[in-house]
């Protein structure tokens, strides 16, 4: 009852019923009018013929010809009567002892259980006002109109039924693409998202729906795939340090060891556990950022943020004997202070870690709200450039073994910058250095 199909069908029926109904009524009354008009005209002609027989000299003494007598004879279904001063002064033989009712205008009356059409014709003779009433039995015409009405009603009913069926057919065709879309959606599950596709070759009105569903499928599929990949990566990353811990303890327990050997093992376990703790803490940060809806935004001085971040990393900079330099005049941004600090801590940390002894780190601040972090480090191989934002990705495994890291820094940075609608770009030449640009 509440379906589009039923409603469309109902509206279709109501509209076609109204249209055909009005058309039927119009057709019936038009024909009735035409029939009555032709009868009236014929009767008036007859009244006029009678009027010509009224002799001016003899007054209303009528001289009927044989023909007229025959026309209005006893058995005839045609009648007339002449009225003077509301009195019937002459009438046809066909009326016998009856008389026609005195009427004011042409009308249909019932006379001897039969429909009778009656018209008036006024004449004045010698200042005498006479009314000639002419009438005719119209039973056959009424029967004809009744038959016409029945045929009309049947035809209209048939037309309504046919058009309703046609409407149902059209509604079915129109709803087919919607049915198809809902069928595809009803069969959706996490595993077949990738293969789910709605045919976009549909009517114009449904095209945006199909396109946006397909986009949603794609996005959902991407999100599911990413999530699966993330879980797999996390498990893998945690498995390695856990295996190290297990191996170390097993070796240590195999036989009696010296105190120093136990101390070494415990230290190894401590270091590995710290690495695991680092992974888990960074993951928590990432998840927290991914779920952040409300940023604690305030106006920040970018130069001040960069200075504070680099101050926290001062020891590492000095340790590697790097020349650290900030250039350009500051600009203001509306951002979450802790998160933006996190961005610069990560990027400067990378510029330190992947630099060469006695290298340089230049931070350039441009008025178009752009910051560049340029280092003279080992650079990133070209084929790794577009993967550094992947979680746990570390370029060039041989060198990353020597440099500590989880491969999560860039993911974190990207996530935070996305939240602030800022862009990040990396430009790097192996063995020459790396330039990371941020556009707020
Ligand atoms: P962490 O999670 O501790 O930051 P990470 O530094 O290895 O670990 P990312 O900061 O995400 O992880 O960097 C990913 C990889 O990109 C690094 O492993 C490194 O190979 C490369 N990389 C990042 N910054 C630089 C840089 N300035 N110069 C050279 N390589 C870099
Ligand atoms: Mg890093």
What's the overall geometry?
Answer: rod-shaped
Bound molecules: adenosine-5'-triphosphate, magnesium ion
Question: How much is the radius of gyration in Å?
Answer: 52 Å
The percentage of residues in β strands lies in: 15-25%
Helix count from the secondary structure assignment: 10
Strand order of the largest sheet: 2-1-5-4-3
How many domains, as an integer? 3
Runs in which pLDDT lies below 50 for 5 or more consecutive residues are none
Oligomer: single chain
* Distance linking N and C termini: 55 Å
Residue share in helices? 40-55%
* Sheet of most strands: 5 strands, antiparallel
What's the CATH class label of the largest domain? Alpha Beta
Order of helices and strands: HHEEEEEHHHEHHEEHEEHHEE
> In CATH terms, what is the architecture of the largest domain?
2-Layer Sandwich
Count the E strands.
12
Q: What do the pLDDT scores average to?
A: 89
Secondary structure layout:
Blueprint: H1 4-53, H2 66-71, E1 78-84, E2 87-91, E3 107-111, E4 114-125, E5 128-137, H3 139-186, H4 207-254, H5 259-290, E6 297-301, H6 302-312, H7 314-319, E7 323-327, E8 332-336, H8 337-353, E9 360-366, E10 370-375, H9 397-400, H10 409-419, E11 423-429, E12 433-439
The chain binds adenosine-5'-triphosphate and magnesium ion.
Q: What can be said about this structure in brief?
A:
The chain is α+β, with helices and mostly antiparallel strands and 440 residues long. The chain has 10 helices and 12 strands.
